[in-house]
Every structure is written in C-alpha cells, then in structure tokens.
Amino acid sequence: EIMPSLVGSEMCIRDRVRDRMDAVKHKWLPQVIMAEDFETAWEQYMKAYDSCNPEIYYQMLQLEVEKRVKG
C-alpha cells in the first residue's frame, strides 16, 4: 500500500518556502564568499535566510519522513 504524501496545500507551502530559501542562497552565498568582511556578510545572509522561515520547510520534511517510516 502506498502511503499518502503531503496534500496539495502542504506541498504548495513547502515549495514556496523552499523556493524562497533557494533564492536567498543564490543571491547571498556568492556575496558572502567574495566579501571582504565575511562576518558581516554572513550575518546579512543568515538574516535573509531566517526571514524565509526555513523551520516550516524542515518541519514538513520531518513529518513526511515520519509518515514514510511508519509506512
């Protein structure tokens, strides 16, 4: 029997958060790598990354893993 996965609205939320996280990484990581002041650039990156609410994405992934383990 195949376990039901995330429902449509959950997938939309997960994908939206993941897409925002990806956009932040693509924008900021090259700047962080090339920055003269790494610490400041890293802090700015982390602030932008945290504003994406990555914990929502990680929680949804964890729920999916738990569903599949119970299988």
Detailed description of the structure:
It is a single chain. This protein has helices at 8-34, 38-50, 54-70. It has 71 residues and is mainly alpha-helical. α1 (8-34) runs antiparallel to α2 (38-50) and α1 (8-34) crosses α3. It is elongated and about 50 Å long.
Structural class: mainly alpha
Put simply, the count of helices is: 3
Succession of helices and strands:
HHH
Helix content: over 70%
What is the first-to-last residue Cα distance?
Answer: 8 Å
Number of strands: 0
* Strand residue percentage: under 5%
Low-confidence stretches: none
A few lines on this structure:
This protein has 3 helices and no strands. The chain is mostly helical and 71 residues long. Helix 1 packs across helix 3 (54-70).
Q: Tags for this entry?
A:
mainly alpha; 0% strand; elongated; 71 residues
How do the strands and helices of this protein lay out in sequence?
Elements: H1 8-34, H2 38-50, H3 54-70
Helix pairs in contact: 1-2, 1-3
